[in-house]
Amino acid sequence: MTLKLYMHPVSTVSRPVRLFIAEKNLPVTETVVDLMTGEHMKPEYGAINPSKQVPVLEEGDFRLPESSAILKYLASRFDCPEYPKDLKQRAKVDAAMDWVNTMLYRDLGYGLLYPQIFPHHKRPSDEQQKGTVAWGKEKCKGALAILDKDMLGKNDYLANNTISIADYFGVCIVTAGEIIGCQFNDYPNVKRWIGNMQKLKSWASVNEVMYGFAGSLKGQQFETV
Ligand SMILES: N[C@@H](CCC(=O)N[C@@H](CS)C(=O)NCC(=O)O)C(=O)O
Q1: Domain count of the chain?
Q2: Considering only CA atoms, which residue is closest to atom 16 of ligand 1?
């Protein structure tokens, strides 16, 4: 059965799935859903994912949205050690991914990044926009401090001190901040972790379009962390 990933190469949560597929050489084809032209808002894609978001994995008539669930499915389906079978180790990976998804991604992606770069995430008045971004920035700093000190302070990876799908997920979300020029200088352990993950052989090719997009915004003023 063919596996297909609906994705966009700049998309924060398509990137970890693509990175994992490339790194593990998994037999998954890709279809671009052009977020920049609003292809995801059309009824055709709405029939694939009513939330009108990427990524979605398709295997025959099985369709799976949600990047975290897709990573877990792929790692289980292809028996990858990045999603350990030991129950307690697996639970640690699940906890790290839930934390990344509900805290870090909310604050960094939806709080700080998207309202500044996507017109349809921009708030209707200047005052609302300023308040949203200021709130996102403060929350984001709090999440990054936890990531830096409590999760990566004495560890090289987010769970079980070995690379897992939680690291794929987390590092792609953090590095999305580079689109607006975040340098993470206050978070040395986060920087060390990013540096390690960037050594993955597929990092450059998978992230090329995202870095190109970041380059196209250079010179614009953004709130950063
Ligand atoms: N919870 C979803 C979130 C997906 C998501 O945020 N997708 C973004 C791209 S990174 C999207 O499709 N955005 C479309 C839009 O904002 O209009 C997941 O983890 O898959």
Answers
A1: 2
A2: 53
- Please choose from 19, 53, 172, 207 the residue to mutate so as to test ligand 1's pocket, defined by most ligand atoms within 8 A of CB: 53
Over range 35-39, report the average pLDDT: 94
State the residue range of the domain holding 98: 87-216
| Closest atom of ligand 1 relative to the 176 alpha carbon | 10
Residues 96, 13 share a domain: no
Q: Has residue 206 been placed in a domain?
A: yes
pTM above 0.70, yes or no: yes
Q: Which two tokens stand for residue 76?
A: 């289980």
CB 7 within 8 A of CB 54: yes
CATH of the domain at 35: 3.40.30.10
Nearest alpha carbon, ligand 1 atom 9: 11
On whether the CB atoms of residues 31 and 85 are closer than 8 A, the answer is: no
Q: What are phi and psi of 125, to 5 degrees?
A: -120, 160
**pLDDT tens figures, 131-163:** 999 999 999 999 999 999 999 999 999 999 999
